[in-house]
Write a structure and sequence with these properties.
Elements (H helix, E strand, L loop, with lengths): L17 E12 L6 E12 L3 E5 L6 H8 L7 E6 L2 E2 L5 H11 E4 L11 H12 L5 H10 L15 H14 L4 E5 L7 H18 L3 E4 L3 H4 L4 E6 L2 E7 L3 H8 L10
Helix pairs in contact: 3-5, 4-5
Length: 261
């Protein structure tokens, strides 16, 4: 039986050290009659060495929350932090440096440079920062995502799934403080997706990596340590130790318009 979720009744838990934190974070688009409140005073922590999935109906604000927390979008009010660094206090240059040095990104849009081959795309953020990769870790990442035989190929010579693997490897290669993923396995077949999700989970458990992933897939969310649910721009629930079945059951509490029942 599905337990109804009451919007506004949720108080976020706070345990462990926060890799990222939002406090009363709001994001508003437009004004007057065109005003849209994408996030409404959201407070949440993403803890170090934890794999968190963010779920909710279309338009619930889950991708907006990730973009604001990752410094990819401005916030209208409230606070967003990576570690002890307040993002709203950073000027553009410092914000760019923080994203490059401390955050990894995996998006459905692969964002690969067409003139670079697979390996060059993977190491690009570190090359820009003047850092050399840990070769043992890089080799493990490449092997895990199944790219060993495709490193010399440019993006237009790779399938969509292979391009996504390059994007995943790029996010993991520099061992950032936190990785944000927006449907990171959305363009992979089920086997490849399971391999990538398993590696993300293992990177959390074995290496202390922190991963925050937006997904609509209960199976993908089942790999996480925790699932945060959004509806109507607010956090409405926080599920520890999820499984695909418990996540799917909880999602049934949302109606077709994305509201909580």
């Amino acid at each position: 039986m599905t337990t109804p979720i009451q919007a506004g009744a949720y108080a976020p838990a706070s345990h462990g050290i926060a890799a990222a934190r939002a406090t009363d974070l709001s994001k508003v688009y437009g004004e007057g009659e065109t005003k849209v409140v994408a996030l409404n005073q959201v407070s949440v922590e993403f803890r170090q060495a934890e794999f968190t999935a963010i779920m909710g109906p279309s338009g619930s604000g889950k991708s907006t929350l990730m973009h604001c927390m990752a410094g990819l979008d401005s916030i209208s009010s409230g606070s967003a932090q990576i570690g002890d660094t307040e993002l709203t206090s950073l000027k553009d240059k410092k914000l760019t440096q923080l994203r490059r040095d401390r955050i990894g990104f995996i998006f459905q849009a692969f964002n690969l440079l067409p003139t670079l081959n697979g390996l060059e795309n993977i190491t690009l953020p570190m090359d820009i920062a003047g850092r050399k990769p840990d070769q043992q870790w890089l080799d493990r990442v490449i092997e895990t995502v199944g790219l060993s035989g495709r490193l010399k190929h440019r993006p237009n010579q790779l399938s969509g799934g292979q391009q996504q693997r390059v994007a995943v490897a790029r996010a993991l290669a520099s061992q950032p403080e936190i990785i944000f993923g927006d449907e990171p396995t959305g363009n992979l077949d089920s086997r490849s997706g399971a391999e990538v999700l398993g590696f993300l989970r293992n990177s959390v458990r074995e290496l202390g990596q922190t991963v925050v992933m937006v997904t609509h897939d209960p199976v993908a969310a089942g790999y996480a340590d925790r699932v945060v649910f959004l509806a109507d721009g607010s956090i409405v629930d926080d599920m520890p130790n999820p499984t695909a079945e418990t996540v799917l059951d909880r999602m049934k509490a949302f109606d077709a318009k994305g509201r909580v029942s």
